[in-house]
Amino acid sequence: MARVMALDYGVKRTGIAVTDELQMIASGLTTIATSELLKFLEDYFKKEKVETVVVGEPKQKDNSASESEVFITEFLKKFTEKFPSIKLVRVDERFTSKMAFQTMIDSGLKKKKRQDKALVDEVSATIILQSYLY
Q1: Is 89 within 8 Å of 76 (Cβ atoms)?
Q2: pLDDT band at 34, cuts 50/70/90?
Q3: Cβ atoms within 10 Å of 82's Cβ, excluding its own
Q4: Which segment, 30-34, 67-71, 90-94, 122-126, is predicted with the most confidence on average?
Q5: Are 67 and 73 in contact (CB under 8 A)?
Q6: How confident is the model at residue 121 (pLDDT cuts 50, 70, 90)?
Q7: SS3 letters for the chain?
Q8: Which pTM was predicted?
Q9: Nearest CA-CA partner of 11 in 58, 51, 48
């Protein structure tokens, strides 16, 4: 089986999480500068078989699209052109950053580590991936 990957896409950074090959366990992989994301994915897809990429869909509380959706849509067009064989799925990502922060508190991370925005993005991607798997 191939892996499933999740992206918590941001204008500056993107958190990335992947499943194991049996698609049972979601784990944080890394956070990458968004400007380097397509190159990173190209290299990763050469090493690992990925069948689906789940991308967080940021929404407002009233269910309307978030301001960052414009940037995500632009990225998705480039992604589809570059990787036409990989399935794209969108998942509502409301509150994932808050959930990630709470998860970090619950796991006992020190305040300094919880302020690491890259780590928050990676944990958010993991939560997005877990919600897709459920």
Answers
A1: no
A2: very high
A3: 12
A4: 30-34
A5: no
A6: confident
A7: CCEEEEEECCCCEEEEEEECCCCCCEEEEEEEEHHHHHHHHHHHHHHCCEEEEEEEECECCCCCECCCHHHHHHHHHHHHHHCCCCEEEEEECCCHHHHHHHHHHHCCCCHHHHCCHHHHHHHHHHHHHHHHHC
A8: 0.84
A9: 58
